[in-house]
Structures are given as C-alpha cells and as structure tokens.
Amino acid sequence: MTDKLTALLSRWTVLVPPLAVLLLALVWGRSLPAAVAAVAGLALVGGVLAAVHHAEVVAHRVGEPLGSLVLAVAVTVIEVALIVTLMADNGTKNATLARDTVFAAVMITCNGIVGLCLLVGALRTRVAVFNPEGTGAALATVATLATLSLALPTFTTSTPGPRFSPTQLTFASLAAVVLYALFVATQTVRHRDYFLPPDLGGGPLESEPRGEGGGADGDHAERPSARAAGAGLALLLVALIAVVGLAKTVSPNIETALTSAGLPSSVMGVVIALLVLLPETIAAVRAARRDKVQIGLNLALGSAMASIGMTVPAVALASVWLSGPLVLGLGATHLVLLALTVAIGTLTVIPGRATPLQGGVHLSVLAAYVVLAVSP
User: Fold this and answer.
1) pLDDT at residue 286 above 60?
2) DSSP per position, 279-325
C-alpha cells in the first residue's frame, strides 16, 4: 500500500508543475471570475506542494543537515518571490507585506513547527531529545536577525514611522546575509555533527523509552539517484515559476475575499506564510514521528532564518525600483510576542530535551498570534 501511495504521489507531483504553467499561460494578465480564481488557487497550492516535494527529493539526495537547508531555501525562494511580486503590483498598499509575512513565518516556525515537533516527539518517547549546541546556535541566529530586521526599525528616528533609512536598511541587509552565510557554513561544514539527531552521530543518545518503530533507520526511504535528483531540481524550477505567476494572478481575488470577511490587511502575510510552510510542517512532523526531532527543529529554525536572511535583503534590493515605502518595524503587540518566543525558545533549547509541556507552550503562543492577527 505504501509503495502504491508513493508511486501515485510521484506521478502527481510530476504532472502538476507543467499543468500549472499551462494554466498560468491561459489566465495571465486577466481579471479572473470567482470560479476560475478558485481553480487557479488550487493549482497554486498544488504547485507549492509539488515544489516542496521535489525540494525534498533533492534534499534526500544530499543528506542531512544539508537537506534541511535545501528545503528551507526552496520554501523561502517561493516566499520571497510572492512578496516581491505582490509589492510590485501595489507598493503603497503592500508596504507592510514583507514585514507581516516574515514575522508570520517566524511565529509559525519557532512556535508552530517547533511546538508540533516537540509535542509529537515527546508523546512518542516521553522526552524529545535533540542537540542543544546546534539548536541553540540556530535560535540565537534567528533571534538576532529578527531583532535587527523587525524590532529595531520601530525605534529608529532617522525616518518617520517604523522604517529604516537607506543606510540602516543596507546595514540590516548585509548583516542578514553575513549571519545566514556564517550559519550555513557552521551547519554544513565546521560543526555538522551539532545538527544531526543524537542517534546519527550528533551527540550522546539518551536512554529514554522508545515508541514502537520509532527512530529505526529503516524508516527512511531509499536515497534517490542522481538522475532522479536532477529531474526533481528541474521540476522544482518549473513549479516555482507556476507558483509565482499564479500568486500574482489570484492575489486580487484573495485581497477582495479578506476585505469582504472584514479581516485586516496583515492577514495576507499570514496566508502567504501558511501556504509556503504547510508542506514543510508536514515534513518536520514526519521526522518527529520517526524520533528525529532534531531534523524537525533544523527545518523549523532553518526556515525562520532563511525567511529573514533572504527576504529582507531581497525586498531591500527591490525597494530601489518599487514605488511604495518599505515598512519593517513591528508594532507593540508583535514585539511582545517576539520577545516571548525568544524567551521560551531559549528555555526549551538549553536542556536538550523536552516534554509535551514545552510543545504545548510554543503552540499556545502561536494560537495567541493567530487570534491577534485576526482580531488586533
């Protein structure tokens, strides 16, 4: 049954990207009625799922922890492309879109994905075990990037409003690129073992009871061939083109739906973040179910880091030719949630092990963020 499901999924993810591109060619530049927009929206979701699937194929080929990095970067490329595309359409109206999307990604990854991984892992093995060295380094980098890029603009005085001056924006962008590059070098070269699950050479394995079938090496699928990885990379690029184009096409319909529902414009950023991070959430939870909580945490924190480290420089560069302003500073409510996320994340990471309580704490912060996003 599993082999049949895998074969079906493989065929589906091969067919969706070219079909989505064909649909994009048919609807490009047109105002879509609701029914056609719904079909385009389904194709958009399918394109995202297919893109992440093919990124997972490439990631499986290169192995951990580089595989988590490949998946995080692929997801962030989708996010950046969506943000820049939508901001180009209406810069003034979407001035806060980059901030809202990046902050939503931080909340979803650092609280939602982390919380789910810890909860699932701890429920299966009583205590979820991971490496505090690598996870702590990732969390510290995310906290620094988020503070420099999203918190500081609220308090600077060179430019009116929660915005950076050109000099400050240049510094924040360079700092994001340098810190992200330094983390990648640490994760993939100098201290690779810090980001491996404890039972794969990443540290001492704790003697906690194991759930049935958890953590066995046999849980992993066979490593794809170089040819399969190459085909996955090609299909990934096709899917990215389809996703960006369809997002640009259906964005007016999404904005109209949000306005009709009486939701604030910031919810658009939450929708984008949820869309691009849903498949990665599934991948992280799968890893936690196999007692590979570390892989799930790598995916979560790596995505948060890539979201800031790639999105801020990209929108900073795009702001040179975009007509509207670029607002990055968070409001008071979101600053409190960011500070709370960093505080509880630090307390979670330090011991290198967590119970279901820690997972529930992180998920409660995410729930608070969602409620306040809908009803500020």
Assistant:
1) yes
2) HHHHHHHHHHHTT-HHHHHHHHHHHHHHHHHHHHHHHHHHTTT-SS-
